């Protein structure tokens, strides 16, 4: 069977998904791909007469069930179409099944899954990657509008912006635990945001990309952080060729554990080819036997959050070093200002400093 990637575009209200989808189709069609786009199912039902705001609880429940059933059927149908193509192809979904869980309570969600013969874990595994586009309501408020979606009930006022930010975070939490969740934050230039979407998909498709360093800072946390997702990370480097880096990572959210095997290979033309795959617990334990004897295992706590439209990850190291906290910005271009939360004190900009790269932190001294 062909290896056809299924990618989700998700995010809060007014995140730019519609425009991004057009750009994705144009860009990858020019590269010789056939792109199938699964339409946004909740909008189809809203435009057809169903409403989230109905006072009828039975109608609300049946609507959510119909949305989940339709989403599953549509995705499967498009995947079947993709399998018949003779040229490279992938499927991009305008929202995915787990988006539904962000809008309803956990009890109803579990019941809907049971009626459809599935679980949250099984649904998460349907997708090869999830790209979360941050709502314009968080960091790009001047661009927030309801004009592009007549069914949107988060209006362009202060209360509407608050609701949109809240929904954005709920959707992000719904996908937490997916090994290939990428957050595409807001930028001074919307084209930059779209370019990061194209780059993320290129990585999923294993198309070589120019080397692009993230921005990193030594920091001290001086107060309460914005609402964040916390996880424990165990990271082991495996024996590899000189031009290749192989990382085995276990990430534990408390109720969910995901193991990812990542290979990063630098090419002669300066580009880098990255491939990732999720591995079972049994394979994870087996691969540990290939651990690089010259590098120690890294253990750290990661706190991830969105602040003023930008995405941050704060890593607090426990082994093989301690008293080290590094903040990384994801997707903030070099010419843009970083919107640091007030509870963060920046000690030093260490972007590009090899001393603070995880691969070198692990080096036994």
Strand order, main sheet: write it out. 6-11-10-9-8-12-13-14-7-15
C-alpha termini separation? 47 Å
Count of runs of 4 or more consecutive helical residues: 9
Average pLDDT number: 87
Summarize the amount of helix as a percent range.
25-40%
By DSSP, the count of extended strands is 15
Class derived from helix and strand content = alpha+beta
Instruction: Provide the low-confidence segments as ranges.
Output: 150-154
Proportion of residues in β-strands? 25-35%
Largest sheet: 10 strands, antiparallel
Radius of gyration, taken over Cα atoms and rounded to an integer in Å:
21 Å
Order of helices and strands: EHEHHEHHEHEHEEEEEEHEEEEH
Bulk shape: globular
Name some characteristics of this structure.
alpha+beta, 365 residues, 10-stranded antiparallel β-sheet, 9 helices, 29% helix, 5-stranded parallel β-sheet
Report what the structure shows:
- It is a single chain.
- A hairpin with a 4-residue loop joins strand 13 and strand 14 (324-330).
- 32% of the residues are buried.
- The chain has 365 residues and is α+β, with helices and mostly antiparallel strands.
- Helices cover 29% and strands 29% of the residues.
- The chain is globular, with a radius of gyration of 21 Å.
- A ten-stranded antiparallel β-sheet has the order 6-11-10-9-8-12-13-14-7-15.
- The protein has helices at residues 17-30, 41-47, 57-83, 106-115, 120-124, 158-174, 190-204, 281-287, 358-361, and strands at 5-11, 34-38, 89-94, 129-133, 181-184, 209-210, 215-221, 229-238, 244-252, 257-266, 271-279, 298-307, 310-319, 324-330, 344-349.
């Amino acid at each position: 069977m062909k290896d056809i990637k299924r990618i989700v575009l998700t995010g809060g209200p007014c995140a730019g998904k519609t425009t991004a989808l057009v750009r994705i189709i144009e860009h990858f069609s020019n590269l010789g791909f056939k792109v199938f786009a699964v339409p946004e199912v909740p909008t189809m039902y809203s435009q057809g007469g169903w409403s989230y705001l109905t006072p009828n609880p039975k109608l609300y429940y049946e609507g959510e069930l119909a949305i989940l059933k339709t989403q599953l059927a549509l995705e499967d149908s498009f995947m079947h179409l993709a399998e018949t193509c003779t040229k490279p192809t992938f499927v991009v979904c305008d929202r995915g099944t787990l988006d539904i869980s962000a809008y309803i309570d956990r009890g109803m969600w579990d019941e809907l899954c049971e009626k459809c013969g599935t679980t949250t874990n099984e649904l998460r595994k349907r997708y090869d990657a999830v790209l979360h586009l941050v709502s314009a309501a968080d960091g790009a408020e001047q661009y927030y509008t309801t004009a592009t979606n007549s069914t949107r009930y988060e209006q362009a006022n202060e209360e509407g912006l608050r609701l949109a930010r809240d929904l954005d975070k709920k959707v992000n939490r719904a996908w937490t635990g997916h090994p290939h969740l990428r957050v595409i934050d807001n930028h001074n230039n919307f084209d930059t945001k779209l370019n990061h979407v194209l780059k993320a998909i290129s990585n999923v498709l294993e198309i070589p990309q120019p080397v692009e360093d993230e921005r990193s800072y030594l920091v001290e946390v001086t107060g309460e952080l914005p609402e964040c997702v916390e996880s424990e990370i165990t990271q082991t480097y495996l024996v590899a060729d000189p031009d290749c880096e192989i990382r085995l990572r276990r990430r534990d959210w408390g109720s969910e554990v995901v193991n990812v095997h990542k290979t990063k290979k630098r090419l002669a033309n300066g580009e880098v080819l990255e491939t990732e795959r999720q591995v079972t617990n049994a394979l994870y334990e087996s691969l540990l036997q290939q651990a690089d004897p010259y590098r120690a295992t890294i253990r750290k706590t990661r706190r991830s959050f969105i602040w003023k439209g930008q995405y941050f990850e704060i890593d607090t190291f426990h082994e093989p070093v301690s008293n080290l906290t590094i903040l990384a910005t994801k997707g903030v271009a070099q010419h843009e200002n970083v919107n640091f939360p007030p509870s963060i004190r920046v000690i030093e900009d260490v972007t590009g400093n090899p001393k603070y790269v995880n691969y070198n932190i692990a080096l036994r001294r």
